[in-house]
Write a structure and sequence with these properties.
single chain, alpha+beta, ATP Synthase, domain 1, 1 helix, 7 strands, 31% helix, elongated
Length: 129
């Protein structure tokens, strides 16, 4: 079956796999090639993807998994792939930490810009008659 992982910036990963094991708040279940159509939500969890001779793990948050016509699609806000569960989870944690730092920096930058704009408006006496 075909696997495609989509994140905010587009396709993160695509490959042919034997089957997948979905783990979410409700438990876990496997999807094989002839599985019936299914859609499930993963608030935070992982998907174990199984190949002929190896496994990989996709750790994700805020995701939707769909399977139809031999195509497994994973749509996630954030997803990281690793050779082990621990590696995938660590990569995901590092990504979240980096995104949080970037968000804090952007918020500080916007605060500075807002303060500068307010000072320029006051100096120019815009709005005063």
């Amino acid at each position: 079956m075909k696997l495609t992982v989509y994140v905010q910036k587009g396709i993160k990963f695509t490959d042919d796999i034997n089957y997948a094991v979905i783990v979410n708040d409700d438990g876990q279940f496997a999807i094989l090639d002839k599985h019936t159509d299914v859609t499930t939500v993963i608030r935070e969890g992982y998907v174990k993807i199984v190949y002929q001779d190896s496994d990989k793990f996709i750790y994700l948050t805020h995701g939707l998994v769909t399977f139809s016509k031999h195509q497994l699609n994973i749509y996630a806000l954030h997803a990281e792939i690793g050779d082990t569960f621990e590696a995938a989870k660590l990569l995901h944690s590092e990504l979240i930490k980096l995104l949080d730092e970037q968000s804090k920096k952007e918020n500080v930058d916007y605060s500075i810009l807002e303060k500068d704009l307010r000072e320029h408006i006051m100096k120019a006496k815009i709005g005063h008659i």
